[in-house]
From TrEMBL:
It comes from Hymenobacter sediminicola. It is found in: Cell membrane. The chain crosses the membrane at residues 104-123, 135-154, 160-177, 229-251, 292-316, 336-357, 363-382. GO terms for biological process: lipopolysaccharide biosynthetic process. It comes from the Bacteria. It is a multi-pass membrane protein. The keyword Membrane applies. GO terms for cellular component: plasma membrane. Keywords: Cell membrane, Glycosyltransferase, Membrane, Transferase, Transmembrane, Transmembrane helix. This is Glycosyltransferase RgtA/B/C/D-like domain-containing protein. One of its GO terms (molecular function) is pentosyltransferase activity.
Length: 533
């Protein structure tokens, strides 16, 4: 027993320690995504508002950075959860030289650190559900081996951070259901507030909590009195409300009922661009019901998806055979929660036509549940592989093919670095280019700018782009001396034109100049650099 405990501590320590070291090594390689500058501004807006309330906050309020920062009542995106953004602003002020490059490098490492924390929560969930820390660690490993999630774990301060905190909240929920105490209710309430302070959709954790406690009350082996449930509910509600208010200054400036308005705004977010999907440009209101399932299918490694289907299928068969008796075990009740976590939000989006865009990133928070079901499917295959007959042969063949394909995925992560965000699971590059959006984060512009800087020694480099946002954003992470050489020049006089392929599957016109460089990853063209004579 002691030896097993040491093996667990050593293995998990090595895994998560190595993951953090990997983040420290690689976080400098990624560009600045489309939303990051506006997200940073959201953090500044909220810090400015807090400073205005403090007796000693006047010097902060008059700082040059905050003089040009909008008021929280005038900033259109102030309703977005600001907790991470405020933290990044404060840490950047304390730890960096206040240059934009230093800020974004720190920000990227902070996001990856939270991604690692989310992987740890996933590990704990798997170990709790499957009663073996090794299965939990496998789940965390599958998350790291998911190319798009690995890449976005460095720069996606919305969806990845929300996924991590949501996973942590689900862990605290399962602990609460295991032993409903006031202390655990307070911890779970704070975890719920953390998720809500990133995205208002964290409100659904309240519903998950109600369902989880009801399952425990109805089918749990340990009796839970109504008085105990009331105490737990009050502690949870109080901690959630206090935590949300503490981390969301927007609610200080308005009122608590604004939260409902924010929720409605999030569901019907007025996003005016189009999605390039299945070879067509579609407005968000025109997206078909299969938009989310298809994007999940083409961006999740195929063995993970198939294993999850196998895991869910096995659980449904077990539930059908045992009926309500399946809920008499903690594992059975946890399985119900994981199934609701995976399928509930997806069905809501598909049935209510909730605004989604840029793939399925708004539902990234359900991915840990899918991975847990994948681990369950793998566990079932391992058990079958120990039997006799043709089932053993089939299971071993499936495991072998899955290991080979997962190894191939790991190789692709290395080969595509730092553009794992254009990973398509089984689609050929040429097919993906014609059917789906590519670099919708605009990260390739950093490597495009770096190529121009390295191959042209002119003191001033004139550059044009279709949208100036990704050019500006990615110039901010360049060293100051390189940043000073870049001059955005709209019109036809710029010497260089950086062409992305977010909404442009076809080739560009020759009038832009000669294509002197192209960035490709996984057979997909990410960006082209054109030069005029």
């Amino acid at each position: 027993m002691l030896l097993a405990s040491k093996a667990r501590r050593l293995s998990t320590g090595i895994f998560f320690g190595t993951l953090l070291l990997l983040g420290a090594w690689l976080h400098r390689d990624y560009g600045v995504s489309w939303d990051e500058t506006n997200n940073h501004l959201n953090g500044l807006v909220n810090i400015k508002f807090i400073a205005s309330l403090l007796p000693a906050g006047h010097p902060i309020h008059q700082h040059p950075t905050f003089v040009t920062t909008p008021d929280i009542r005038d900033f259109p995106d102030a309703h977005h959860g600001p907790l991470f953004e405020m933290s990044a602003v404060v840490l950047s002020y304390l730890l960096t030289d206040h240059d934009s490059r230093s800020y974004f490098l720190l920000r990227h490492f902070l996001i990856f650190s939270i991604f690692t924390a989310g992987a740890w929560a996933l590990y704990r969930l798997g170990a709790h559900w499957l009663r073996d820390w090794r299965w939990g660690l496998l789940g965390a490993g599958l998350l790291v081996l998911s190319p798009r999630f690995f890449a976005e774990g460095f720069y996606n301060g919305k969806d990845i951070v929300y996924m991590a905190f949501f996973t942590l909240a689900m862990l605290t929920l399962l602990r609460l259901c295991q032993r409903p105490t006031v202390g655990r209710a307070l911890v779970h309430g704070l975890a719920t507030a953390l998720a809500m302070d990133i995205r208002v959709q964290g409100l659904q954790l309240v519903l998950f909590t109600v369902v989880g406690l009801w399952l425990e009350k109805r089918w749990g082996t340990e009796p839970v009195s109504n008085r105990q449930l009331l105490q737990v509910a009050l502690a949870y509600a109080g901690a959630t409300v206090v935590g949300v208010l503490a981390g969301w200054p927007y609610l200080w400036a308005h009122s608590l009922p604004e939260l409902l308005e924010v929720s409605s705004h999030a569901v019907r977010y007025p996003w005016g661009f189009t999605n390039f999907y299945m070879g067509r440009h579609l407005l968000v209101g025109e997206l078909p019901w299969h938009y989310i399932p298809v994007w999940m299918g083409i961006t999740i490694p195929l063995p993970f998806s198939l294993a999850a289907v196998a895991g869910i299928g096995t659980a449904l068969r077990y539930g059908w055979l045992r009926r309500w008796a399946a809920l008499s075990t903690p594992a059975g009740r946890t399985g119900v929660m994981l199934l609701l976590w995976l399928l509930g939000p997806m069905l809501v989006v598909m049935l209510t036509h909730t605004v989604v865009y840029e793939g399925w990133r708004h539902l990234y928070f359900i991915y840990p549940a899918l991975l847990l079901w994948a681990v369950q499917g793998i566990r079932q295959l391992v058990q079958i592989s120990r039997q006799t007959g043709w089932r053993r042969t089939a299971a071993r063949l499936a495991i072998g093919l899955g290991v080979l394909e997962t190894g191939h995925t790991a190789v692709r992560i290395v080969q595509m670095h730092p553009h794992q965000n254009v990973y398509f699971s089984f689609l050929m590059g040429e097919v993906a280019e014609q059917l789906f959006e590519r670099d919708y984060w605009g990260l390739g512009y950093r490597q495009g700018l770096e190529w121009v800087l390295a191959h042209d020694s002119s003191p001033t480099l004139t550059v044009n782009v279709f949208w100036h946002y990704p050019l500006y954003n990615n110039s901010l992470i360049l060293p100051p001396q390189d940043r000073a050489r870049i001059r955005y020049t709209p019109g036809g006089t710029a010497r260089y034109y950086l062409a992305g392929y977010r909404w442009h599957p076809q080739s560009y016109l020759d009038s832009l100049g000669t294509e002197v460089h192209a960035i490709r990853a996984g057979g997909v063209k990410v960006l082209s650099v054109f030069r005029r004579p």
